[in-house]
Amino acid sequence: MVKAEPNDIIIGRGHTIQSRPANQYYHAIVAAVKPYYDAAAKRRRHDYAELVMNQIQENHNVQQSVRFLKVAESSSGGSKDYSIAERGHVMKKVWQALRDKKVDGKNTSAGLLQVRL
Asked: In Å, how far are 60, 83, 103, 115 from 68, measured between CA atoms?
């Protein structure tokens, strides 16, 4: 079990999780990559999911590493414990976010990254 740090991206639902700065950064990266993902051939879409992962790891905060956490099964009530999510689980969530993410017309991710594949 680990405690969530400010740079950690928590996999889950709800306002508390989605309002975390690290989660907002993650969603901004997804929104920036989504148009390229949508236009890509199916065989290339994996590359864009990898791009999201790499972008987050490289640029979120140079001083601290970024971890993807999921709520531990033993957590209940107020204080939550987390476990580090396996890369395969995280990639499934990134692909899901790229497929499902609705872009609201606001360009909140402008300038965050340049997409080159």
From this structure: 12, 9, 23, 22
106 domain-assigned? no
Query: What phi, psi does 104 have (nearest 5°)?
Result: -90, 10
The answer to whether position 85 is within a domain reads yes
Question: Domain range for residue 66?
Answer: 9-100
N-to-C CA span, the chain: 37
SS3 (DSSP) at 84: strand
pTM for the full predicted model: 0.76
Phi/psi-derived region of residue 14, left when phi > 0, alpha when psi is between -120 and 50, beta in every other case: left
Q: What are phi and psi of 99, to 5 degrees?
A: -75, -40
> What pLDDT digit, counting tens, does each position of 66-81 carry?
889 998 876 555 567 8
Tell whether 19 is covered by a domain: yes
- State the total domains in the chain: 1
What length is written for the chain?
A: 117
